[in-house]
Sequence to fold (305 residues):
Amino acid sequence: MSNVWMRRYIPSSTALKCFEASVRHLSFTKAAEELYLTQSAVSRQIRNLEEFLARDLFIRLNKRLVLTGSGAAYYKEVVPLLDGMESACLRMLHREDEKITLTISSLPTLASYWLMPRLAEFQAEHPQFQVKVQSLDDAAKIDPDNIDIILHYGGDHWPRAVSHQLIREQVVAVCSPELLTRIGGEEHKEWHVEDVTLFPFLHLSSRINAWPDWMVAQGLESGSFSGASFAHFHMVLEAAKNGMGIAILPSILAERSLQTGDLVAPFGEQVTTPHEYLLSYPADKADLEQVMIFRDWLLAKMKAS
Fold:
């Protein structure tokens, strides 16, 4: 027999919601307050449900409401179904079926201090994409099936990936304005590159040669570089902003803090390193709309800057 004319034997959703709330509160009055109904409306819905099921769900003892055995068994089966219906509705409300997902994996500090200020502009220009940003903590664990774009530090080039240079790395010595005042006093107006030796140094533990290389590039003699060491660039950047010392930071990461005045760079010019920042994507995704548009957009931004 065809199912076209079959009618599901299911009570109304209002009756089920009234039943569930009444069980939790053991009160029609409190259930009514929660559901923005009158007490009589809730009582009527429960009565209709009991007639539908041909059994009592509650015993009414004076002003007390007691769940029957049948009511308890029904509640146990109905609640998971209501939860499932609610979850399905919430998932549907938050679906982005009409949008194409663009998944970007980026070095955490690069994402926080460089990508985010640009991403809002991209999203405004291309609202057809649902952007997802993941942290690139371990290059060896990259799953190309679940990532469209990778923003990373060179020269890590992945097999079967296409890479484009975003920018050659330049580094700059930065510190907080407060640290300058603390070391030089209010009247100290001009700083020279050799004055860095007056300050405590900050280090990234994975770049032990950052300070010696910067000194050589500035024409200074390499010396002792004692100071606090940190595991990640965002830690070094925050330490510098909070006056712990002078840090050698990639300009691409320090630019926003320099613009806001949280950091200053009075010690010499930027120094170009042999390294680079890259935009990469799996070769088999080169023709995807989201990859092509984001790639062309970001490379154009970098060319114009």
Summary: The chain has a mean pLDDT of 88. The chain is about 45% helix and 20% strand.
